[in-house]
Amino acid sequence: MTEKLQEIIDANITVHTIMADKYNNEPHFRPENQQKVRAVLENIQKTKQYKSLLDIGCGTGFIINLSHDLFPEIHGVDVTQAMLDRVDTSHGNITLHNSSAENLPFHDKYFDLVTAYAFIHHVQDYRKILQEVFRVLKENGTCYIDLEPNKLFWQAMVDLEKKPTLEQDKLSAIVKKEVNSVLHTDDKVLEEFNIDKEVFNKAEYTKSILGGIDPLEFEKCCKEIGFASCEISYQWFLGQGSIMHEQSFQAADDINSYLQNILPLSAHTFKYLRFILTK
Question: Is the pLDDT of residue 185 over 90?
Answer without folding.
Answer: yes
